[in-house]
């Protein structure tokens, strides 16, 4: 670099004479030097008059806004919803009228408990919130990846969240429910028990946002043009299929890549592999509601798909990453109260409370009532109203009229329109004012049991192990035993396994149920992840561990087989410079071995050259790579030169491992479609 290109401090100068590219202040004034503040002499004090410095620093000092009180860590992406089946007989919502029409969307996935900087694979519920920019206004479906909630009445929400967040005195634990306060609250709130089964299941450690379901949770209403109402529950079904990781893997992913879920989403969309979900509706009427075993206004209950089938009406495709994380993902403001004509609320007390909380929270978070002026929150259809002023007002009403009724005729601004305007469903309401919980909300165990018996044995084991882990983190015996007293009302086997895991020899008395549970609800296969496995490796990732001199034909065959499937292949090598294969071609590395542990892949293949095979066998990260892949029930392919490593890692080959040549790359892919070799877990853990 010449002296001209370097500043006095030796830093590279990046100057331009192009007006378009010229850096300016926020006021638009061109800036000549952005690296040195204005001083009285080269070594003198900085001058207060330096408007360039002051403006830059002032803005930086105010960059942060309060993080969301829950769901602080999230990841947003653009997409669109395409209607596959019109439902005018059920709803007059504009978005549900024309088959093939695409409505733009913005979806934000999140964890609940952790702060903005926490890790992605916490055991936690995932938020799944979608804003539909419909032609009749924004509709926000603010759901989770679990179809039930911990509490029945929104007045308990601050306590629930306080209990799971870091304790107020010590400021930890971060992003976890495995502590006394959470389980204390839950065990004193039996309504939460059903949701804890979901939370202790593998649903709470999804492999990726792309491989999880979403649920609107509450019962809403669909209202048609004649004003007739049906009840509805909304479902998102991932076309990619369901998949989760195992707990030991989750713990390690959090260290290896705390951004695992957001990176996965970014990479998939960046590669053009757009994730899709079908929007399903469960529709039912008053007669069903009156005969259903539980109250349809109780958000701690599901309606099994076997009882009311899920009808698919459209597809959500996520096809664009954000341009700017703060402007879009951070500033997006979801509100459950954002509904459109044709969709309405019910009396679910949790939903009613949410309708207050979301609007209220945006005021605090985004600093004023004009957050709808921020592009990500603004409707994409025309909008006209007389709301004005306030912080950061971007579009105040034009002209002299800002009120109604007015007599200014054509110049009088927007007018009401009873034809297309929102009409609340005229539900009959009467009752005595009282602070009570309906008796019909009192059964807290029946569906918890139903969830448990709907799982495969592997999944049941995981649930028991998760309760054991979490309760083992509770220091107070009374809390552990109180939880156990509830699990005894859910299922004997579960309670026994957890008791054994905790080392409890004398079982407590079962908790006294508010209402006797129904013990003969049938299992519902839709509740299991493994019973609904996709039998595909598309969208998944193979970790291809290569060393110097690896057989090029095997590498190429694996790369081709997995690419044809629609899967990703990441190359892992001993050095980041990559390797030269047997035919002299090279492969660049995506990861050096200690930066790309097997926990970030769905299956692994070890294609090694003879050279240095013994040295690699002694490498600890390489040993961890295979031993973790094995312990996490992943499929493993290898070539002979990898044998010393497999031996050093103590791998006992089984049907989930296979020696691979160029001819059987396809066979390995087919095996990988099962995603995990669960029989190994049975053998390792239970025999
Ligand atoms: Fe909530 C955020 C989902 C109950 C109060 N919630 C928030 C987000 C999701 C949910 C996905 C993140 C939205 C985003 O990405 O910006 N919440 C749920 C579901 C619930 C639920 C599915 C039960 C069915 N929430 C719930 C209750 C209350 C809140 C009962 C309070 C009465 N939730 C909030 C909040 C948040 C929020 C404090 C924090 C940030 C925000 O709203 O925008 O208002």
UniProtKB/TrEMBL annotation:
Q: List the catalytic activities from the record.
A: 2 H2O2 = O2 + 2 H2O
Q: Where is this region: Disordered?
A: 1-44
Question: GO molecular function, one example?
Answer: catalase activity
Entry keyword annotation includes Flavoprotein: no
Biased composition of type Basic and acidic residues is found at 1-22
Record keywords:
Heme, Hydrogen peroxide, Iron, Metal-binding, Oxidoreductase, Peroxidase, Plasmid
One Pfam family name is: Catalase-rel
Known EC number(s)? 1.11.1.6
Q: Which SUPFAM superfamilies has this protein been placed in?
A: Class I glutamine amidotransferase-like, Heme-dependent catalase-like
Say which enzyme class the record assigns: oxidoreductase
The coenzyme or cofactor needed here is: heme
Superkingdom of source: Bacteria
Residue ranges constituting the Catalase core domain according to the UniProt record? 24-412
Function, please?
Answer: Decomposes hydrogen peroxide into water and oxygen; serves to protect cells from the toxic effects of hydrogen peroxide.
Q: What protein family is recorded?
A: Belongs to the catalase family. HPII subfamily.
Please state what the protein is called: Catalase
Species per Swiss-Prot/TrEMBL record: Sulfitobacter faviae
